[in-house]
Amino acid sequence: MTSNQPQVTNLRQRQRGRAASCLLWSAASTMFLLIAAAVVIAAAYAGWDTGVEAAKAKSTGTVAAEQRQQCQRIPADLAAGNFDLAKTRIESLRATMPAPDCLPPLLPTATAAYLLAQPSPTALPTLTATKLAPTATLPPPAMSSATPSDNESGWAYDLDALLAEARADLAARDFSAAIDTLEAIIGIDDNFNREQARGLALEALSAQALLLYRQGKLSEAIVLTDRAEVYGDIGELNYERYVAEQYLTGQRYKTTNPALAVLRFNEVYFQHNSNYMNGQVVGELQDALRYYGDALALQGDACQARDQYAAALELYPNFSPVSRGELTAKQQQSALACGDPAPAPGQNGNGQSGEAPQAIGVRAPTNNQSG
Predict the structure, then answer these.
(1) Separation CA 166–CA 168 (nearest Å)
(2) Whole-angstrom Cα distance, residue 158 to residue 288?
(3) Which ranges of the chain does DSSP label H, i.e. alpha helix?
(4) From residue 128, how far is each of 122, 131, 141, 175 by CA, in Å?
(5) What are the per-10-residue average pLDDT scores of the chain (371 residues)?
């Protein structure tokens, strides 16, 4: 019995060693397989990502090529008298963002060709009618007053007729049509009756811009004002544009920088027109004061926040994005946090101090009152 025990012990040790070796090999094999799988997945993802990028590049190139083809077909459509087809192509290209570079040079030619093809409502110079055989194609319009010989399109236009049509549109207060016609004339030949054409363009653009300001379409009005300024003095539109820019700046920064928004709306309301945008400026100012009070309360300036809510409650707009109940609750909460539940009277008549609003993130000194 004693002599057999060491042999059994050695056998068990060898068996344990083999088991440990198997475990190590199994773990190593598993690790190797995991690494291999990760490499395969990474390679597949890289290939997929590269394929996506290649597909995007190919798609972009295809779209650009298609846009160039559409641009190239527009002059042929105009020459054949297919104005509806040319218009469809132009509107499709205009709808792309951004519009292709090949489109802007075609617009004056297309506009002029389309206008000349329309029947004139007044006794304006018109084309001489020509009878064509059924199989003949419609030739390009031949006009009496031709543009300079270096016209890239090769077309000849009756610019006198276009100018007369623009005058008729102005007289009928169809400013948009007059603008299109006049800018087509200037685009075709900037030297044709230069002073007269540019003066009429200034008149049409200014009138349309003023109309848009009155309709509350401020962004469009500003764009037309900038275009009108190219042709001369825009007079009162300078003032209209400035006030509109202040109002739009207030709207843009009402939530992200309410201190700036309050300044802009305050200027419009107190210095220019308290009924601007049919009174909407009052509601915008009240809303900006709410956001400014919220920001001040969030950064711990309870007394400053209280003053903004009190100033907002001094306003009575026809419509406001914020309710008076919400403003009253916020004003009372900030007043309690400030230590004085009574709103401090403002120095400018609307519950605000006369100083410029504190920038967000800059804590102003508080004026706590104990009773």
Answers:
(1) 5
(2) 55
(3) 5-79, 83-95, 107-117, 159-171, 175-188, 194-214, 218-229, 237-252, 258-266, 280-298, 302-313, 324-338
(4) 16, 10, 10, 28
(5) 50 58 63 64 53 51 70 74 67 67 70 54 36 40 41 66 93 94 90 93 96 95 95 95 96 95 96 94 96 94 95 94 94 90 45 51 46 34
Task: For residue 21, count CB atoms less than 10 angstroms from its CB and return exposed for 0-12, middle for 13-18, buried for 19 or more.
Answer: exposed
CB atoms within 10 A of CB 329: 12
Crossing angle for the helix pair 5-79 and 83-95, to the nearest 10 degrees? 140
- The amino acid occupying position 189 is D
Unique residue bearing structure tokens 């996506």 = 52
Radius of gyration, alpha carbons of the chain = 37
Determine contact, residues 254/261, Cβ cutoff 8 Å: yes
Tokens of 23: 């475990």
Spatial CB neighbours of 141, under 8 Å, sequence gap ≥ 6 = 113, 116, 117, 127, 155, 156, 157, 158
Considering the entire predicted model, what is its pTM?
Answer: 0.55
Start-to-end CA distance of the chain, whole Å, equals: 103
* Residue 271 CB neighbours (<10 A): 10
What's 274's DSSP letter?
A: T
| Residue at token pair 């509109």 | 244
Residue appearing with tokens 């020509």: 130
Q: Rounded to whole angstroms, how far apart are CA atoms 283 and 294?
A: 17
| DSSP 8-state class, residue 106 | G
Q: Encode burial over 87-122: b for 16+ CB neighbours within 10 A, e otherwise.
A: eebbeebeeeeeebebbeebbbbbbbbbbbeeeeee
Exposed / middle / buried, residue 61 (Cβ in 10 Å: 0-12, 13-18, 19+): exposed
CA angle 312, 314, 316 (to 5 degrees): 90
> What is the distance between the alpha carbons of residues 258 and 294, in angstroms, rounded to a whole number?
9
213/22 Cα distance (integer angstroms): 86
